[in-house]
Design brief:
Protein name: L-2-hydroxyglutarate oxidase
Distance between the termini: 12 Å
Shape: globular
Cofactor: FAD
Family: Belongs to the L2HGDH family.
GO molecular function: (S)-2-hydroxyglutarate dehydrogenase activity
Largest sheet: 9 strands, mixed
InterPro entries: FAD-dep_OxRdtase, FAD/NAD-bd_sf
Strand content: 25-35%
């Protein structure tokens, strides 16, 4: 019997495993995942940004853990020779109407304890010569990193500490008992004193399998990107973001220099017809039917019908997608970009159609379920792992 079994070998599950072993090196820990490699889904398909925490509601878990996570990630990368770059980012007000929204964002950054600076149009041009805007906020602590490399480092550290990775192992059933949990998998039965659900895109299903009603469902949203062609990468020096649309829950098209030098532009946000669907043509009947039968989705769709329609048009029309890019960098043309990768965001949605905005953790008798951990979960993965480890260890310290 293991002390702790973790479902999900994404960055949050791996960080949690490492946090448990750091505090209790004698503990027995296993990380289970149905894929044959770590960071196979959300972690391995994100933009690689180390967020600052500027966007999030003051005192929320997201705001607190993003800031702490940014600092912890820098220390971790330096300690373990993982490539990263604290390059800073600009958030740009493209017109006069966006100035008040930008000022609100600046004030929120200050409330969240961040070093943020207002930039005039001229100062913006110094940092990003091709960016268009009347004013900007500069966030020096934002950066870029390869989260796959971070995850592989966590996995190596877990194994060095005596933990086990059991990959290619899909969970079929879960039985929570008085003194332990039993997980039936495609590779046999795994017994542990405590079960920790970090299954990301499938976290609601795992919670349900364990007998927990969550009042939410994961609805997948695919984010599609374009890449700047090599000869056009000079148009973006680091990170260029728009002022978020207050009437839409997703961030909007932005520019991200990746750690390997690529520059991505995106994402849009369209409903995914498969929880792990990275291509437009990907479709899974069960995943699709779950969304279609969920009242919360239709309430959300009604609320954001206009914005949702625009997102779908951008998905189908390169011309419209490039027009979104031109708001920030007017000189970009359709010829300058080519299709890039896509990611899928596991967005938890309540029955009333509201998005679960903060990280959401449900604690049971012998289990803990991380039921909502979208962006900035990768940035915040170290303190999220430590938070989960603290909660678990407070109730269930290892017995040796």
């Amino acid at each position: 019997m293991y002390d702790y079994a973790i479902i999900g070998a994404g960055i949050v599950g791996l960080s949690t495993g490492y946090a448990l072993l750091k505090r209790h090196p004698e503990a027995s820990v296993v990380v289970i995942d149905k894929e044959t490699h770590v960071a196979a889904h959300q972690t391995g398909h994100n933009s690689g940004v180390m967020h600052s925490g500027i966007y999030y509601k003051p005192n929320s878990l997201k705001a607190r853990l993003a800031k702490a996570g940014n600092e912890a990630m820098v220390s971790f990368c330096e300690q373990h020779n993982v490539d990263y770059d604290i390059c800073g980012k600009v958030i740009v007000a493209a017109n006069e109407q966006e100035r008040p929204l930008l000022d609100n964002l600046y004030q929120r950054g200050r409330q969240n304890g961040l070093d943020v600076q207002k930039l005039t149009k001229e100062q913006l041009q110094e940092k990003e010569p091709h960016a268009n805007g009347v004013e900007a906020v500069y966030v020096p602590s934002a950066g870029i990193v390869d989260y796959k490399q971070v995850s592989q480092t966590f996995a190596s550290l877990i194994e060095k500490c005596g933990g086990k990775l059991q990959l290619g192992t899909e969970v079929i059933r879960i039985h929570e008992k008085e003194q332990h949990t039993q997980v039936e998998t495609t590779s046999g039965s795994i017994t542990s004193r405590v079960l920790i659900n970090c299954a990301g895109l499938h976290s609601d299903r795992i919670a349900k399998m364990a007998g927990y009603y969550t009042d939410m469902q994961i609805v997948p949203f695919r984010g599609e990107y374009y890449q700047l062609k090599k000869e056009k990468r000079h148009l973006v020096k680091n990170l260029i973001y728009p002022v978020p649309n207050p009437d839409f829950p997703f961030l909007g098209v932005h520019f991200t220099r990746m750690i390997d030098g690529d520059v991505e532009a995106g994402p849009n946000a369209v409903l995914g017809l498969k929880r792990e669907g990275y291509r437009k043509t990907d479709f899974h009947p069960k995943d699709m039917m779950e969304v279609m039968k969920y009242g919360g989705f239709w309430k959300l769709a009604k609320q954001y019908a206009k914005e949702g329609a625009n997102e779908m048009i951008r998905s189908l029309s390169k011309k419209r997608f490039v027009e979104s890019m031109q708001k920030l960098i007017p000189s970009i043309t359709e010829a300058d970009v080519e299709p890039g990768p896509a990611g899928v965001r596991a967005q938890a949605l309540r029955e009333d159609g509201s998005l679960v905005d903060d990280f959401h953790i449900i604690e049971g008798k012998r289990c803990l379920h991380v039921c909502n951990a979208p962006s900035p979960a990768a940035t915040a993965s170290i303190p999220i792992g430590e938070e989960i480890a603290s909660r678990v260890l407070t109730k269930h310290a290892p017995v040796h």
